[in-house]
Amino acid sequence: MSHAHFFFAGLVALALSACVAGTALASESIKIGFAGSLSGDLAPYGLPPLMAVQMVVKEINDQGGIQGRPVALLVEDDACKPELATNSATKLVAGGVKAVIGHTCSGPTKAALPIYQAAKVLVISPSATSALLNQDGEYPFFFRTIATDVVQAKTQVDFALQTLKAGKIAVLHDKGDYGKGLAEFARSLVERSGQAQVVLFEGVTPGAVDYSAVVQKIKRSEAEAVLFGGYHPEASKLVGQMRQKRLAIPFVSDDGVKNDTFIKVAGKDAEGVYATGPADASDNPITKAFREKFRQAQGTYPGAFFDNAVAAALALTNAIAKAGSTDPEAVAPILRSEQVATPFGPIGFDAKGEPVGIGVSLYQVRNGQFVQVR
Amino acid sequence: MEYFFEILFSGLTRGSVYALIALGYTMVYGIIGLINFAHGEMYMIGAFTALIVSSVLSIYGLPLPSILILAGLAAAIWAGAYGFTVERLAYRPLRGAPRLAPLISAIGMSIFLQNYILLAQTPDFVPFPSLVPEFAFLEPYSAIINSSGLTIMAVSTLVMCALILLIKFTRTGKAMRATAQDRKMALLVGINVDRIISLTFITGSALAAIGGLLIASHIGQINFAIGFIAGIKAFTAAVLGGIGSIPGAVLGSFVLGLTEAFATGYVSSDYEDVFAFSLLVLILIFRPAGLLGNAAAEKV
What we know:
Strand order of the largest sheet of chain A: 7-6-8-9-10-14-15
CATH architecture of chain B: Orthogonal Bundle
Strand content of chain B: under 5%
Structural class of chain B: mainly alpha
CATH class of chain B: Mainly Alpha
Radius of gyration of chain B: 19 Å
Oligomer: heterodimer
Radius of gyration of chain A: 23 Å
Helix content of chain B: over 70%
Shape of chain A: globular
Number of strands of chain B: 2
Largest interface: A-B, 34 and 40 residues
Mean pLDDT of chain A: 88
Number of helices of chain B: 11
Number of domains of chain A: 2
């Protein structure tokens, strides 16, 4: 009997001390995770968002943190690989993080979400555009600050049909989660429009040494435009070989291609290539302020997804401040109900975590730069 | 019919790209029986060396053919030096060890070199200038083949013939064959086996580097990881043709390249790898030593 009592008292004491320790920790820093592709081929998509988040965090900490508590950032690299993303997610969860900004690519985000879900961690991605992510709202704590592939595909198809007036369209992809998803939406949109037909729908092997067979096939299909879902290494090879084979039809791609590395690698072949990407927000004062700060620190203007990551960091920190905690149960409703000022203007989120107020624009390479097509 | 020829040439280009890398692979295997997984990295290092040398030379305004030759020489010498060093550091200490040990050492070397270039150069893709001049006589056929494709085909055929001549008819070649047949016996008759093996690695790496230069110039971009996929495909081609056999490597490469191109052209590029590897499995079932490999019973 006395033993049992003693045991019970011990439990109470333990629980109490745990509570004390809990509050002591809570009054220290607010931990936010960042996970994305910081190395490998797709590092150009992960590094600008990391810098954006670091800048927002630094600004908040310089102003005394969130309700007096400094924000600490835990950073993990997934190299845009699903198998590494699960590691990064596990590490962040083990590090006590309750909110993560990331991941960069759709495949890794898809792989990491169940881990975050099990640990009740809020995730807000600045760049994962796959519409298959959270399609049925199965992850109540998933948000993103970028328009999905459905919106991108719609912009591409509308442009191909109405502006380019293409009657025959070739749709290609890189067999990845992101590229193939986008290409499938584009195909169904073209077919549903009834104005054009998809004459070719194929996946190319990433990293292959030669795409001339596919290019010959495009040529034979007599397509008047190519829509490509995928990333810049394959896009630059495809465009290069199309131009070598004297195939001069328009090439319309996505935000996996809309960056300076594509222009640098494809060189003169990049001229005239179209790509969709996040709406241009360069007139917004918040955008201007952050881009200018980046330029002062790095000497150049930021690359892809920088503005989206600033938006993600602002929305997240704002919601944490209003909720007074990092508990996703408290933060998520605030993200859904309140508007927050971001580089894209005031934005909110719908029930599935999709952004309301962030759109897609179409760009074209002109004189070695992506210029918005109006 | 025109489409058939377009696809045929596309397959031949692909095949000769594989052949250029597979030749070095198969030569090293033929002589010391080691699958040199770092071979793809020699190809990548060759491409990077050629890029650096050609950028420097083009600043001095040299004509394109001389840039091509000088960059090729520099890449071959530099990658040859890497091949020599890798053999010295990673394979020679394991000469008497069980066969798996140098294999693991080779995989380790491959990972090390990739990450070394990633840190020393860049994680990004970098543009590679097209160093092969445009041949005017090819202009009417530009839809079928371009000058870099033709050059790759010519060079891989040339290299194959040169290697066969080297191995069949020269003193060094004789020593190489003797080393391949029985290392201890070769040593007893006065062949400097260590020197022959070093020479094999230097030649193999130099070939890979020249391949790196020509293929990068054809594709137009390189990064630290290009050696991996190219190496896997070339290895497949070498196995298909019969690893260790020099004409086999070329034959295997063309079979692989043509299968991929025709699968893409007449079925779908979604199934390109499916067709390529199904063919590999089929050939290995009926001819376990590959198309031209000799099915000598392994001594146990």
